[in-house]
Amino acid sequence: MLKTGLSKLLRSVTPDKVKIGSCISKTFLSADMSPPIVIQPKGPHKASVIFLHGLGDTGHGWSQVMGEDLNVDSVKFICPTASVIPVTINMGMRMPAWYDITSLSEFDKEDKAGIMRSVSHVHQLISEEEKSVPSDKIFVGGFSQGGAVALYAGLTYNKRLGGIVGLSCYLPLHTEYPTAATPQNSSTPLIMCHGKADVVVDFRFGQMSYQKIKEFHSEVEMKSYDNMGHTSCPRELMDVKNFISKHLADSS
User: How far is CA 231 from the centre of its chain?
Assistant: First the structure.
């Protein structure tokens, strides 16, 4: 079922550029794995959110959104930048990407090695944050390709997390589930958000990923937005902010 939807995964091979009002992703950096953009909390540090950008973007692209639209008191936001690598479907052009994309039609051509490298990097970021806050106060999320990595990283971490957020994305390496999922995060709150007008990562593809996750995960929800393409909107951001606030309160 999921395989038939992959042809709609990325109809555009241009980098993901998020536009939310006046917030426009900045040009990607040329440096390999630049230091993450960190937005320090207002008040005592009680929780952290690690958020991954989409293909061709950088941590700068979502840092303004984190600082303004998703700002929650006592929450630290970390926006890492992916390594600059050649992207096959972009004729080998080098850009920040969490993994290579070689095909738009076959799941057996997913870049598993690249996905797992990025997942390992996210796990390291989570582990580093555990020096300051408990794991169940750490949220991991992302947009598009970054959302795909966030889903896999969150579902496979070996300690319970505070929550998992996937925006306009899909579940990579889906045939590895439910085996790949760790019991520690089998009931960690997870939210997927997707625009019904998305022509880059098709809305139906997000729906199929949601249904797959529901087979083995007890606390997953999906929200959809009419007329929203491969981007974000104020209502979606409010839903994410409410999700973070609610589950931080639940774990207090």
Answer: 13
Rounded Cα distance, 114 and 128, in Å: 21
The per-residue pLDDT for range 17-59, each reduced to its tens digit, is 443 332 223 333 334 568 899 999 988 999 999 999 999 999 9
The residues carrying an active-site annotation are: 144, 198, 230
Task: Look up residue 115 and give its two tokens.
Answer: 């996905």
pLDDT digits (tens, 9 = 90+) for 153-196: 999 999 999 999 999 999 999 999 999 999 999 999 999 999 99
> Is residue 178 reached through a cis peptide bond, with omega within 30 degrees of 0 on the bond before it?
yes
Beta bridge partners of 47: 75
- Measured in whole angstroms, the distance separating CA 170 from the mean position of its chain's CA atoms is 9
Count how many Cα atoms sit within 13 Å of the Cα of residue 184 in the half-sphere of its side chain. 12
| pTM given for the model | 0.87
Q: For residue 49, what are the β-bridge partners?
A: 77, 139
Q: Fill in the DSSP letter of residue 3.
A: G
